[in-house]
Design goal:
heterodimer; A: about 425 residues; alpha/beta; Rossmann fold; GMP Synthetase, Chain A, domain 3; 23 strands; globular; B: about 140 residues; alpha+beta; VC0802-like; 2 domains; seven-stranded antiparallel sheet
């Protein structure tokens, strides 16, 4: 179902006029209210008056995750804290998270976009939504929650984990829509099987999955095992959270970007040059309606391409293809963003641990597992096995405490971790996505 | 009183132990006693050898992590109850045995066992008070 016919199927010409007007207003606002942007504009001899067409967006420099970190925690906010009603955060490349804020209007915009997304994925009033995205600082859980309420569906805020209880709820409450990470959806089907519950007997019709990259092959598997239609949802907290782009269940071929709120570009990550439609590069977003935390040409590090062809669903908004990778070394483990540098800082804080480590990511059944190999140097070594096991546990606990991700720690002999040209290979990702 | 044991970190996989014995053999080091403690992932090999210097150097050169620990080589009467008597007196004195293992060679008619204690000084006192012979390090290596 198309929730907002007016905006979602608007003729391109009208849509582009709205985009330009909103872009100009956003540029005016960040120039006036965010010292970081004003400085960037001034350094490049640009004033808001220079942005006369959508083409002019190219003249504005990019914003990166480093810029957000340099302005930690609230330096990028464009409104006084009095007007901020919500704060979310996601992992950054160092110990510090990326912090984003929302005004009451932003929360409402986000809820509307999530309601549109749920509708595009097959949900409607009267549906019961089993929301297994994590609630908390992560935007997944609350994003879906507010959208479901805005849509007028019933939402079960079950969050992540406690899988067997989730199966009972699915059986007894009869939810019709599942929202989760795709790997957790498959995990749910496995656990259901173990406890003798068949998805065939449940009432699910549609599933809306995101927060981690997944393939067409995985979609086939989910649809077969869960007896549902599965669509991809995209978002990142820096832009707004989930609900930046959504696949329509009619086509299931690329994700419509809500262009009345976000301008997507795809660039060559090395040169910064904007690439023509169809070419693969780094996805960049400019928000044009956000109040508390607008971003101008924010580099997502996600790799994809844009497709302007009209869609059978009737939406006129451009589609981005499924994200195929990252330009940095960020890993997504069960929906949690993990940078190798974060693991390194946790290890470096423990004086007996040397910085020789390697991350091995596997998909065990359907759940991602992270194993951290740590080389045993003289300071870490003990002649007593229980001391060594205590150290393993302590490292795992620190990783869990700082990063929120469970890791298995495995001690290995020195020089086991391959060093190529003196530089260690830090990540081995065995997942076949 | 004390003897020095060397310990080596090993991953629990085929051929690692043979790698260590090979290195020691090449370095002309004689193994006097040995024990291996392991988990599913890794093991700790503990060794009493005739030359710690040669052994440690050879193993480190080949990239192994090697530790040195003070242990006691204790004479244990070679008859029923011989070991029990010793453990009992240590227990009475509240001294924990972290681990222990047997020495290959006898000392006279007594067996020899290597003990790793949480409090080695107290252990020496208790053993001496009860007339249990603790063999000197230098003797142990050439026993």
């Amino acid at each position: 179902m198309i929730l907002d016919i007016g905006f979602e199927t608007m003729p391109r010409e009208d849509l582009e006029a709205i985009i330009l007007r909103r872009l100009k207003a956003t540029i005016d606002r960040v120039y006036a209210n965010v010292p970081f942007y004003r400085k960037k504009f001034e350094e490049n001899n640009i004033t808001p008056n220079d942005i006369k067409s959508l083409e002019d967006l190219k003249r504005i420099p990019f914003t990166t995750k480093d810029d957000l970190r340099d302005n930690y925690p609230f330096g990028m906010f464009a409104v006084p804290m009095d007007n901020v009603v919500r704060i979310h955060a996601s992992s950054g490349t160092t110990g510090k998270p990326t912090v984003v804020g929302y005004t009451a209007r932003d929360v409402n915009t986000w809820a509307e976009l999530m309601a549109r997304s749920l509708a595009a994925g097959g949900a409607n009033r009267g549906d019961i939504i089993h929301n297994a995205y994590g609630y908390g600082l992560f935007t997944g859980g609350l994003g879906v929650h507010y959208g479901a309420e805005k849509l007028g569906a019933s939402v079960i805020p079950v969050s992540g984990g406690n899988t067997k209880r989730q199966i009972v709820i699915m059986k007894d409450f009869g939810p019709t829509i599942l929202t989760a990470t795709p790997s957790y959806a498959l995990h749910l089907s496995e656990v259901a099987e173990e406890v003798g519950v068949s998805f065939k007997d449940l009432k699910f019709k549609y599933g809306i999955f995101g927060a981690e990259p997944w393939s067409e092959k995985m979609r086939d598997e989910i649809e077969r095992k869960l007896h549902i239609v599965a669509v991809d949802i995209y978002g990142l907290s820096e832009v707004i959270g989930p609900g930046v782009a959504i696949e329509c269940h009619e086509a299931k071929k690329g994700l419509h970007v809500f262009e009345d709120h976000f301008i997507p570009e795809v660039i060559n990550p090395s040169t910064g040059e904007v690439l023509p439609y169809g070419e693969t590069g780094e996805l960049v977003f400019t928000t044009i309606t956000k109040e508390a935390f607008p971003v101008i040409r924010y580099r997502t590090r996600d790799i994809t391409s844009l497709n302007p062809e009209p869609c059978i669903c009737g939406r006129t908004h451009i589609r981005m293809n499924k994200v195929s990778g990252r330009t940095d070394d960020m890993l997504i483990i069960r929906g949690v963003n993990v940078f190798p540098s974060q693991i390194e800082s946790v290890l470096m804080e423990m004086e007996e641990v040397e910085p020789h480590y390697q991350l091995v990511v596997d998909r065990d059944g359907n759940l991602d597992t992270l194993t951290v190999l740590v080389e045993v140097g003289e300071r870490l070594f003990s002649d007593e096995v229980k001391r060594l096991q205590d150290r393993e546990k302590k490292i795992a606990k620190n990783i869990k405490d700082y990063l929120g991700v469970s890791a298995r720690v495995k001690l290995v002999e020195p020089k086991v971790i391959a060093r190529s040209e003196g530089k260690a290979v830090r990540v081995i990702d065995n997942r076949k996505i | 009183m004390r003897a020095e044991q060397i310990s080596v970190f090993l991953e629990n996989k085929a051929g690692r132990l043979a790698e260590v014995t090979g290195i020691l053999s090449d370095a002309k080091v004689n193994i006097r006693a040995l024990a291996l403690a392991d988990t599913s992932d890794f093991g700790v090999l503990r060794l009493i050898v005739d030359s710690n210097e040669k052994a440690v150097e050879a193993l480190k050169n080949r990239g192994f992590t090697v530790g040195r620990t003070d242990v006691l080589a204790v004479e244990v009467e070679d008859r029923p109850g011989g070991l029990h008597r010793i453990l009992d007196m240590l227990n009475e004195a509240d001294i924990n045995v972290e681990y222990m293992y047997a020495f290959v060679q006898h000392s006279g008619k007594n067996a020899v066992m290597i003990f790793r204690f949480d409090n080695i000084d107290e252990a020496v006192k208790v053993l001496e008070k009860n007339n249990v012979k603790v063999i000197n390090g230098s003797e142990v290596y050439t026993l």
